[in-house]
Amino acid sequence: MSIDAVADVLSDKRWLVLTGAGVSTDSGIPDYRGPDSPPRHPMTYQEFIATPEARQRYWARAHVGWSSMTTADPNTTHRLLVARQQAGGLSGLITQNVDGLHERAGHRDVVDLHGRIDRVVCLDCGTRSPRQRLHERLVTLNPGYAERSAVIAPDGDAVLEETSDFVVASCEVCGGRLKPDVVFFGESVAKPVVEHCFSLVEDAEVLLVLGSSLQVMSGLRFVRRAAKVGVPVVIVNRGTTRGDELATVKLEAGVAETLTALEPVRV
Question: What is the H or E stretch that residue 95 is in?
Fold first, then answer.
């Protein structure tokens, strides 16, 4: 498929956009399943809640990796989508990313399907608080730890072998267990969020998937719903996706270069 085929489907429509990790790679944030991505084994929700040692390992790695998330800036794709929203050319934006870069670029009404890494939630009392506040507490509890050398993995994780000396912070309200306010592997997206996304899909003129392999059902189900109700689906991604057979058009290309080429059809 060519860029012209993509333009033919998109040019006279308002887009509902679903973005994945391939949108943020240009900002220096690694993805899980890109063509050059090494195998990753992220901690599941079940592992996280099982033992204090698992949570210690998670937070040690996340503490070191947090700097990669805070220093990442929105890229061309984020900015082009903001411009299109401001021009009235989008009907909505759902992101599988937890980095908050769409909002930082100025996008409004983003559906953060998997939550936000810049927030923390207490599993015991439900209190939500800023991640930066937790980071400052962890710096105090673990002087110099954040400066350790490590390979940065997706979603602000870092590859560390030894974490037994890391001191974990507890909830300031109840002393309970803290978790980033994101949907872990093995955890479900809240039903009201899913239903809202389904309504966006059913009202859409076209669904444009950008930079997602659609390997997890949380995103694939919206492609399936679009195909079921007759909404055209355009997928732009490097590599195959689980939704390819449902796509009206699939373009194997970079997201930023594709959106830049589509500028002449921007409303």
Answer: strand 90-95
The whole-number pLDDT of residue 32 equals: 61
Q: Categorise residue 84: left if φ over 0, alpha if ψ from -120 to 50, beta otherwise.
A: alpha
- Which contiguous run of DSSP H or E holds residue 120? strand 115-122
Identify the residue whose tokens are 């439900």.
126
Kindly state the DSSP code that residue 185 receives in the 8-state scheme. Answer: B
What pairs with residue 18 in β-bridges?
Answer: 94, 209
DSSP state of 252: -
Q: pLDDT for 28-81, tens place per residue? A: 888 765 555 445 568 899 999 999 999 999 999 999 988 777 888 999 999 999
114 in active site = yes
Distances (CA, A) of 39 to 9, 33, 42: 35, 8, 10
Phi-psi region of 144 (alpha: psi -120 to 50; beta: other; left: phi over 0): left
Q: What is the mean pLDDT of each run of 10 residues along the chain (267 residues)?
A: 92 96 91 55 91 96 85 94 96 96 97 96 98 96 88 75 94 98 94 98 98 95 98 97 97 96 63
Domains of the chain: 3-265 (3.40.50.1220)
DSSP states along 15-81 = EEEEE-GGGTGGGT---SSSTTPPP--PPBHHHHHH-HHHHHHHHHHHHHHHHHHHS----HHHHHH
Q: Which of 63, 78, 114, 135 is catalytic?
A: 114
Strands of the 128-130 sheet, one edge to the other = 128-130, 115-122, 178-182
State in Å, rounded, how far the first CA of the chain is from the last one: 23
Query: Which structure tokens are listed for 22?
Result: 């391939």
